[in-house]
Every structure is written in structure tokens, then in C-alpha cells.
Design goal:
mainly alpha, Cytochrome Bc1 Complex, Chain D, domain 2
């Protein structure tokens, strides 16, 4: 190959490699929350059953009377199905609350049993759990929730 073609080929190869690598380095490209991804949803279902169902319910139904404070002052675990308010929050908010717990985002006097999952679940696992939860919502709620992230 003449030197000029060799240089062009090298540049094109480097660009292709950089594009592939960007999927691993650029936030949101490889690690997005995708309720349409069967593998991510299956992983999320498994992780939800292991880490979330004991409080939020095996069917995402939450604890009974989830809007009424317990004697301890804590609110019961809310449902994550369409009857709850999870879909009122953007993916970024859901991710941050799951990773860091409620205490980091609530007023000082707010009591919650929601733990931080940092160190327990990886970032990808947290996203998978959220993808599973979102996969159970009706399409109209999913569209409304996704619009929150674009605002």
C-alpha cells in the first residue's frame, strides 16, 4: 500500500477502534437502563428477588399502607409497580437513591429503612434492577417516566 493509503487505513482503523472503545468509556452508552433488553431485565429480576423483594414485595407491590408512617417514624417500602410513585422519578434519581440510599436525598428528619447498595450491587446491577422494574410498567407510564429524564 502506498504511504498515503496506509495512513488513511490506519486512521480509519483507529477511529473504528475508538468508537468501539467509547461504548465502554462513555457513560450511558453501554450501561444504560433498558427495559427492552431481555438480558438486562432477567438479571434485574434475579437481583430484585435477592435484594429488594423482602421490602418492596415479590410482585413489586410494596408494604401495606405504604403511605402511612410506622410507629418508628419510617415510611413503609413503596410499591414499584404502576400503583406506586417510582415512575414519577427519573432514571438518574432512581439510580442515585438505590446506590446511595434515601438518607442522602431526604430532609434531615426523614426516616427511611432504604439502605445504600453501594458496595453491594455494581452500577450495572443497579441499572439492571431499575430496567426490570420499568419493564413491568404499562407503556404509557414508561413513556411518561422516560420524559422526566429529558426535562
Amino acid at each position: 500500500m502506498p504511504p498515503r493509503r496506509s495512513l488513511v487505513a490506519t486512521v480509519l482503523l483507529a477511529m473504528a477502534a475508538a468508537g468501539s472503545l467509547a461504548g465502554w468509556l462513555v457513560p450511558g452508552r453501554m450501561h444504560r437502563i433498558d427495559p427492552g433488553d431481555p438480558r438486562q431485565v432477567a438479571e434485574g429480576r434475579r437481583l430484585y428477588a435477592e435484594h429488594c423483594a423482602r421490602c418492596h414485595g415479590a410482585e413489586l407491590q410494596g408494604e401495606p399502607d405504604w403511605r402511612v408512617r410506622k410507629p418508628s417514624g419510617e415510611l413503609p417500602a413503596p410499591p414499584h409497580d404502576a400503583s406506586g410513585h417510582t415512575w414519577h422519578h427519573s432514571d438518574e434519581q432512581l439510580y442515585a437513591i438505590t446506590k446511595h440510599g434515601m438518607a442522602r436525598f431526604a430532609p434531615p428528619d426523614y426516616k427511611s429503612a432504604m439502605p445504600a447498595f453501594v458496595g453491594t450491587l455494581s452500577d450495572g446491577e443497579i441499572r439492571a434492577v431499575i430496567a426490570y422494574i420499568k419493564s413491568t410498567w404499562p407503556e404509557d407510564l414508561r413513556r411518561r417516566q422516560e420524559a422526566l429524564g429529558r426535562q
